[in-house]
Amino acid sequence: MKKSLLLFFAAGSIAVSGYGQDIKEKEVARIISSLAADDMGGRLPGTPGIEKAAQFISNEFTQAGLQPLAGEKSFLQEFWKYRLHPTSVSFTVSGGEKDWPVIAVGAGRNFDWEKKDGYAEVHVKDPGALMKILRTPQAVTQNTLVWLAPSMAGYLGDLTAHFSERSYNTQEELEAASAKAPEDKQIILAFEQEPVADTATWSIHIRRDINSQHFANVAGMIKGSAKPNEYVVFSGHYDHLGTLPAVAGDSIANGADDDASGTTAVIMLSKYFKKHPPVRSVIFVAFTAEETGGHGSRYFSEKQDPDKVVAMFNIEMIGKESKFGENSAFITGFERSDFGPILQRNLKGSSFNFYPDPYPEQNLFYRSDNATLARQGVPAHTISTTQIDKDKFYHTVDDELSTLNIKNITDIIQAIAISAGTIVNGTDTPTRIEKASL
């Protein structure tokens, strides 16, 4: 899966000519290719791959000359969660043992199911149909096996994180949830790697135990020269899905666009602002567990005083050209504060433009790591270029370096660096966002 970087250097002029020239295309390519490499294993929390990625980011922050956050001894902001994790799974179809993914939904501990009367079966090809089942538990009247079509492979990580191995803050919370799980109204999702006839027999045996899971954000900061108690945050998430069912022998979900691209931006911006010392304090953070519940950004946000956070630049999926063309990106929640207009004003005279989110139906504003601080009134927005409605590589094993435009990524990072200048240097303060319930 390693590709020549020469393939990714697109032709064209610098989007913000004369600005941000500390941000070099070659350096962007080095960082993103490291984060999206096979040896990172898809950067799933709890795996050696994400630990390697965390160390890589820490090393980059050290080279940038950052300091750890207050109260932290290193760039790792560590915490733990509790979840149910399978200790054994046996799955047979028509008498043959299968290694297809099987996902037990909810907080049930043990499952011993054999095809017989009393079990419902549903075949699902569409995410919307599946969500209708999972989010309306009152409609489930009996134990139900849901067969997932191969087209649903990209959703397995999300389904595991949000509906099977949901994390709890304490073991006691999880034990209480397990005690309340109804034994006769549970759901198991089975990945139908090959067509299964309605007449086929099957058996599923699952044992799950409580275990604790270690997580770590990677965060550093530059103390402001004149307004050290006012903070500007630059963030992206460095986790991804790990591995998925193999396609043409490839099972690694490299997550090049989602979100090695955004994490690369955070690293590059840390080096840029170290060379251009800020007036306000600036925090640079790579979040963990965005894909598995947003645990990293929530933990980080709980440690902040939202009244002291002036703005948050969350950067997610900037690896490809936006629907508005080159030299452009969109900002989620554009209408909720004057954050976007400030950025665009600071780019006057350049060819780069920021636009409002063109996908309001996707509710992207509250689907990324900006959400927790935004709900507390912080002008926290996500900058992105993803064409989320038609990106065929999203959450697949094909989200690789070869699909990205490194030149365009570099231009976007340059534009963010320059457009953030008056906020970082204390001359502009974005209006606050209306608070929302958490």
UniProtKB/TrEMBL annotation:
Pfam families linked: Peptidase_M28
Residue ranges constituting the Peptidase M28 domain according to the UniProt record: 217-416
PANTHER family registered for this protein in UniProt: METALLOPEPTIDASE M28 FAMILY MEMBER, PEPTIDASE M28 DOMAIN-CONTAINING PROTEIN
Protein name: M20/M25/M40 family metallo-hydrolase
Organism the protein comes from: Chitinophaga hostae
Phylogenetic classification of the source organism: Bacteria, Pseudomonadati, Bacteroidota, Chitinophagia, Chitinophagales
